[in-house]
Amino acid sequence: MKLHVFTSGLLFLLGFASTIFAQPRTNKTNSDIAPANIRPLVNRGHSHNDYRQNIPFLQAYYSGAGSIEADVYFHNGRLYVAHAKEEIRDGFTLDSVYLRPLVALFTKNNGRPYADSSFSLQLVIDIKEDHEHVIPELLRELAPYQRVFNDPANKHCVRVVLSGDMPEPAHFTDYPSYILFDGRPYTKYTDQQISRVAMISDAITEYTKWNGKGTLTRQDSVKLRQMIEAAHQRHKPFRFWATPDSPNSWIQLEKLGADWINTDHPQQLHDFYINRKKLLFANPSPYQVYKPAYKIDGANKKVKNVILIIGDGMGPAQLQAGQTANHGQLNITQCRFIGFSQTAASNSGNTDSAAGATAMATGHKTNNRAIGTGPNDEPLANLPDALSAHGIRSGIISSGDITDATPAAFYAHQPDRDSSNAIAADLLTSHVDVLIGSNQKSFLQNKDKGLMNKLSAAGYQLHLKLNELEKANGGKQLVLLSDADTRPVKDGRGDMLKTSILQTIRLLSGNKKGFFIMAEGAQIDYGGHANDLPYVVTELHDLDKTVAEALKFADEDGETLVIITADHETGGLTLLDASANNGMVLGSFSTNDHTSINVPVFAYGPHAQDFTGTYPNTALFYKILNLLKAAK
C-alpha cells in the first residue's frame, strides 16, 4: 500500500514499518533508539506492570512488546518483582521471572531479543523505593549477562531503563553507561544527562481528563502533542502512562505521535496491530460518482425492467467503509429510497448466502445451504422461472463462481450448495437467458459428460472470454470465465462486473416484455470472511461502479427499477477510525462468518418507494414479481 501524507497524526496511523517525518539525528548516543515509526507497530507496545500478567514477561514478549516494565523491591538481599511490599512472594525475583528467560531467548535468537531483527526490546525496571540499594544489586544481578545488556559491538542488546525512584540527573554518570533512565518532560537535562535518558514519560492524567472515549479536546490535543514534539526535538521517544487502554485510545495516542503505547493488555494490543495491513485502507484518489436525474425516481409508473444488484456480505458498516474511502461519496447512496431486509434463514437467525439468496429469488425462507429448494428439499420457482411466463427475459451475473450460492439460487434447485456439478446441470431446465461468471470446471468437466452438448441444443452459446460476448446478438449466452478472470479487484480483476452488466443490458433490453437482471458482487463476502478491510472496500467500490451503470440506464430508459441490497452481512465489521477527507478507514471484525443484522435495500426508479421500510428478505421476490407482472 502506498502511503501518502495526510496529517501528522495519520502518518503515525499509517506508518507500518517506515516512511514518516523523522528529523536527522545528531549527537547520537547509546540511549537513542530507532524511532517508533521505523519499527513494526506491534513492537511499540509498553507492557505496563507486566508482572501482573497471568504469564509475566513471556506473554508480553510473545506479543512483540518493545518495552516491558517490572516493579522491583530490594528484599532479603535480592530484587523481587511486586507492586507493593506486601505482594512480595518467594521465588518471584527479577532474575527468575525476567532476566533468565530473557537471556535464554536472546541466546536462542543468536544475539537478538527477537528473531526479527527489526524488533527491539527494553527492560524497564521501576524502582519502587530505595534506589541506593536497588541499583547496586541490579548491577550485581546483571553482571553475568553483559553480552545481553552491555555489548558495544551488538546493536541488538536489550536496553536497561530505570524508572520510579531514580537518582538525580546529576548522578546519572555515577552508573555504568548501559544503565539508562526514564526522563520527565518537566526536568531540565544537560546534554550529558540527556544522553543517559532512554525515553521521556509522564502520566497523561496530569494533563487531561480524557477517558479514552472519542477524541481529546483541541486544547488537550495541542498540549499533549507539544510535549511529545519537545521530546522528539531532543531525539527521545515519548510515553504516557496511566492512559486509557482500548483500541480507540491506542489510535488517539498514535495520532498524537506517542512512540510507546502503554498497555495492560499486550496480547490485545498485539492482535490489534498484527493485522493492521488488513484492517486499514486508504484511498487518496476517489472516483467520481454518477448524479442521477431523479425524474422517474419514486414515480408511480410502469416498471418494465428490474436490475437487482446484490453485494454479498454487504452490511451497513461495509457501505460506510466504502463511502468514507471514496471521500464521502458512493453511487449506491445517491438512491433516496432506502429500506432494510431481515435476513434470517428458516433454521437459523444467521443466514448463509444459499438461504439468503433463495429467499430473494423465490419468496420462501429455507434452510442454510439450500439452493432454490424449501426446508423439505422441495423445488421452488425462482424469479426467472416466474417471469418467463410473462415473456420477461433474465440474466444472472457474478464476479465469482457462477455455481456458488447467490447466483445459483436464481437458476438451480439443489438441497446442498456444494453440489456444484448438479447446480451447473440445472441451467438446462432454467429460464435464464444470460449467465456470466467463473468455474469452467463444473460445466466443461461435469459428471454429465454430455452437459455442454445439451446446453448447446437448448440454445446456449458458449463463451470463455468476456469480450466474446460483444459479438453476440440475441439468443441465450453462457459466459464461463477462468478463475483468473474473477480474481479479486486488488489483484487485478478489472471491470469484469461492470462490463458484464452493460453487455447483459444490451442483450436483453431489446425484449419488448422487459428483463430481469441479478448481478452479484461476490467478493465483498470473501473479504469479510478473510477479515480483510482493503479486500472488502475494493470489492464494494467495484460493485458501486457497476451500480452507476445501472442508474444511468434507468435514467435513459425511464422504465427500469434498480435495487441494491445484500444477502447478509459478513465479518461483523465495525469502524474504529475514519476520515472522508483522506479516504481512510480503520476497522475491526468480530467474526469470520455471517451475522444476523439487517441489511439495507436501496432503490432507484419507478416504484422505488415500495422498497422503504423493514421487511423479510422474501418480500423482495413479491415486490419485484408484482411490479413486473403489473406492467404486462
UniProtKB/TrEMBL annotation:
Zn(2+) binds at D312, D525, H529, D567, H568. Gene3D superfamilies: Alkaline Phosphatase, subunit A, Phosphatidylinositol (PI) phosphodiesterase. The keyword Signal applies. Binds 2 Zn(2+) ions. Residues 1-22 form the signal peptide. One of its GO terms (biological process) is lipid metabolic process. Its cofactor is Zn(2+); Mg(2+). InterPro entries: AIM6_PI-PLC-like_dom, Alkaline_phosphatase, Alkaline_phosphatase_core_sf, PLC-like_Pdiesterase_TIM-brl. Keywords: Magnesium, Metal-binding, Phosphoprotein, Signal, Zinc. The active site is at S353. Mg(2+) binds at D312, D404, T406, E520. GO terms for molecular function: alkaline phosphatase activity; metal ion binding; phosphoric diester hydrolase activity. Transmembrane segments: none annotated. PANTHER family: ALKALINE PHOSPHATASE (PTHR11596). Belongs to the alkaline phosphatase family. This is Alkaline phosphatase.
